[in-house]
Amino acid sequence: MSSKRKNYRYEKESKNPSKDRNVTGKELNVSEETVVGLDTLIEMLSDKGVINKREYQSTVAMRLHEMSKATAFEEMDHDI
Q: What is the per-residue pLDDT across 34-62, written as a single tens digit (0 to 9) for each?
C-alpha cells in the first residue's frame, strides 16, 4: 500500500518523471527526443496500416526540399 502512495506522490510532484530519473547514458536534447518520438510513432502507424511509410517519407523529403529552397531564396534576396 505504501508503494502505491509513493508512486502517486512521485507522479503528482513531477511534471516529467523521465527527467527525475538517474540518466545512465548521454542526455538527449529536445530535438533528439522529438525525432525518436516521431520515428516511433511513424513505425507504429505503419505497422498498423494507418499510413504508408514510403509515401510519408517521400512527402517529408519533398517538404524539406521545398523549405530548403525557400530559405536559400530568402537568403539570396536578402543579400541582393
A: 999 999 999 999 999 999 999 999 999 99
**What are phi and psi for residue 52, nearest 5 degrees?**
-95, 115
DSSP for 35-46? HHHHHHHHHHHH
Residue ranges of domains in the chain: 50-80
DSSP symbol at 50: S
Residue found by looking up cell 511509410 in the block: 53
The Cα 37–Cα 10 span in angstroms is 24
Q: How far is CA 32 from CA 13, 18, 37, in A?
A: 26, 15, 9
